[in-house]
Design goal:
Distance between the termini: 12 Å
Radius of gyration: 12 Å
Oligomer: single chain
Helix content: 25-40%
Strand content: 25-35%
Number of helices: 2
CATH topology: Alpha-Beta Plaits
CATH superfamily: ACT domain
Length: about 80
């Protein structure tokens, strides 16, 4: 079994926002990846962005600057 790690998990209300996040983060070289929403979280579209919790503030600012709407940011072990 894989060891659980603490992650910042960003949920989105729609798939369009999740895909925009993935595209822009890859273009800008920001860390993280798209994952299915963990079972412990309820979210609208079923996709989430997972990243190191240390970059949470950077990602929040990035989403504001790029007008990416998100639902909530969780700090959880997955």
């Amino acid at each position: 079994m894989r060891k659980k790690e603490r992650k910042a998990v960003i949920t989105f209300q729609n798939t369009t926002s999740a895909m925009a996040m993935e595209k822009l983060c890859k273009e800008q070289g920001l860390s993280g990846r798209i994952i299915p929403v963990p079972r412990s979280i309820t979210a609208g579209c079923g996709l989430a962005w997972s990243a190191n919790p240390q970059v949470r503030l950077e990602l929040e600012n990035f989403m504001k600057e790029n007008h990416i709407s998100y639902d909530k940011i969780y700090d959880i072990e997955i």
